[in-house]
Amino acid sequence: MITFAAYCAIDAVNWSSLKHMLVSPLHYKHQRESADNDTTGRKMGRLLHAMALGSFDEEFVVYDGGDRRGKAWTDFQAANPGRTILKPNEVADVRAQAAAVRAHREASRILAGADTEATIQWTDPETGLPCKGRLDAMALASERLGDLKGCGGLAALDRTCHRLGYVHQLAWYRRGVRIAHGVECAAYMIGVETKAPHDVGVWRQDRDLLDLAEREIVTLMARLARCIDDNHWPGAMPEVEDMFTPAYLLSDEHQIPEEGFS
Fold first, then answer.
1. pTM of the prediction?
2. 114 vs 137: CA distance, rounded Å
């Protein structure tokens, strides 16, 4: 296992950047060139992964010395370079989430014996571009991989996993494992509610749906390669497009107000 910072330093395409090609090449380029500003949500997501998957001590450390000032605080910072420093209260809820994941029969089965937070690298066969992925759980011997997500509710995660690109993310990992290791894996998504009672659910992703997502990934990679070769990064609307009248405006029931327009 390599650290998250070392993974980020690898110069290669990953799904977190490639997904912006779904909007436009311009958005992809902007994301790649922008400073990686951390957010509380992203920090809590990494914390959940670290606690549930066993890498907490590599990235995080808890400061329980009270106020973050004075010599005790500066000495603590100096003793923990590159690590995210947390307050005790920030850890409590996430610790409960991680415990719920480990206590769930199916989630623990997916994680059992797997390499966690495993970094893989491969060369895209169609474009020759270097690619990378950091998998929450990868078990080559049992041909499975898993991805852990915190969520507001299991039903909401089930409904929004397509809109949020989670299926494509798993398809990206599955493709990478196949190319890098020659193993065709089943893909699972593990969801845990971020608020008590921290219910946990596991979804096995449909192979046909993963295949569909992978075909779109191949298309995105081909477009990315063309943009790199041409050094041309168009936005979502490089040409004039027609704006059509919405169907509801043409219905007999729709009445245009006589006032309110200037």
1. 0.84
2. 6
